[in-house]
Amino acid sequence: MTRAPHVWRATLLEAETVADLLVEFRDHLGRDWPSDNAFHAGVERVLERGEADFLLAAPAQGEPAAGVCQLRFAFNLWRAGSECQLEDLYVTPSARRAGLGAVLVAAALERARERNCRWIELDTHEDNAPAIALYERFGFHVGRSGGKRELVLARSLDDPR
């Protein structure tokens, strides 16, 4: 029997699993903030309030989750409909190259369609070639407007400047 990756939407009972994977992602990025406790409390809050979906993936049905991504939904006036923000896609190093990233992206697209989204977007580091290749396989592209690259810009609102 062939092992096939399995993906599902996390429930509140799986908040600890989601948070643990996101803490591992934070560590992978070389960061030490937010704290482990903040991730655990935040995931519980998001799931309790229905503010986002978390998708989990395992190498096969019945195995522990080894991948995660977050999906946030909002109405966009410029798109005259809902959009989905795909965030925090992470697969543990031991489970990479097993198709978990691909099943997470495919499930994210399916979930966005279920929610009648007209647009889905994400951001990644421009030097993350494996991630870019994965997203391009699913039809994502670097935005261009008038021949110019569209950039994702952000700033912290914690800093009063």
Automatic annotation (TrEMBL):
Stored InterPro entries: Acyl_CoA_acyltransferase, Bact_Acetyltransf, GNAT_dom
Entry keyword annotation includes Metal-binding: no
Domain N-acetyltransferase: 10-158
UniProt xrefs under PROSITE patterns: GNAT
Keyword Acyltransferase belongs to the record: yes
Protein name: GNAT family N-acetyltransferase
Domain of life: Bacteria
PANTHER family per UniProt: AMINOALKYLPHOSPHONATE N-ACETYLTRANSFERASE-RELATED, AMINOALKYLPHOSPHONATE N-ACETYLTRANSFERASE-RELATED-RELATED
Organism listed in the record: Conexibacter stalactiti
SUPFAM superfamilies per the UniProt record, alphabetical: Acyl-CoA N-acyltransferases (Nat)
Keywords assigned by UniProt, alphabetized: Acyltransferase, Transferase
Gene3D superfamilies documented for this protein: 3.40.630.30
